[in-house]
Amino acid sequence: MKKILLCLSLSIMFSCGKDKVVLLPEISHSGITEIDDVSAAYIFYDITQPDSTELNRRNLISTTNWLVNVDKRLTLKQAIPHIKFLQGKKANSSHKNEKAKNYFTCNDTTRKSLGFIEFTGVVYHEESPFNYLEKLLTSKPFESNLITISFHTRNKVTLFNPKFKNLYVNTNRIDFLDIIKKSDSIKSKIHLDLHESLSFNDYINIKHELLNLNLKYIEIAKDEFISNY
Predict the structure, then answer these.
(1) What is the pTM of this model?
(2) Is 48 left (phi over 0), alpha (psi -120 to 50) or beta?
(3) What is the pLDDT of residues 74-106, one digit of tens each?
(4) How many alpha carbons fall within 13 Å on the CB side of residue 18?
(5) At 118, is the secondary structure helix, strand, or coil?
(6) How far is 28 from 136, CA to CA, in rounded Å?
(7) pLDDT tens digit string along 7-63?
(8) Which letter does DSSP use for residue 119 in this model?
(9) Please, which residues bridge with residue 107 across strands?
(10) Residue 65 falls in which region: left (phi positive, over 0), alpha (psi -120 to 50) or beta
(11) H helices of the chain, where?
(12) CB 58: neighbour CB atoms within 10 A?
């Protein structure tokens, strides 16, 4: 099994090549700290490009685990199209390894090393989640415990149940975690609704915070929504 060792500088910069630098998103106490048999892609923050992004995927091998290194300064509007492109390339490759997974690379500030967050199977919808959930409720009318968590800004969070419209809670990033944890007694499914202006660093922190709750009954849905309302 081949392994790529990635170096992290004191300034929390991850470098690939002579002139290119990726500032990795920061998390603490990563649940995944080592991955074997990998190849890497890089989504750079580059103000010389029309969308301020540049994708480097030249060394990707479809049968390996993929480490996707995204600059934390990019917005979801900038980063998600490139991530979806990479997902499509792997899914449509003629050479597949069903066991190979996809991970975002992060800087684990606690361990002062690299950490990883898996996103294998995540489907990004660049739209509001409500039409999708209404169709889901039409086909599965007993799915009452669907919860949408909308992140409008860095700190404003809205929890909404599309079936029971009276469940509508505005809160902040810290309190929403307590609400979710206290609700972890009934089988439910959470869909993330993220504003396209959120930074990739904010996005990774949201996913990391939810993963760290170690929920027993609540499932985090693979369908995630990037909206602009």
Answers:
(1) 0.88
(2) alpha
(3) 999 999 999 999 999 999 988 889 899 999 999
(4) 0
(5) strand
(6) 35
(7) 443 333 445 555 688 999 999 999 999 999 999 999 999 998 888 999 999 889 999
(8) -
(9) 26, 114
(10) beta
(11) 76-91, 130-139, 173-182, 200-211
(12) 8
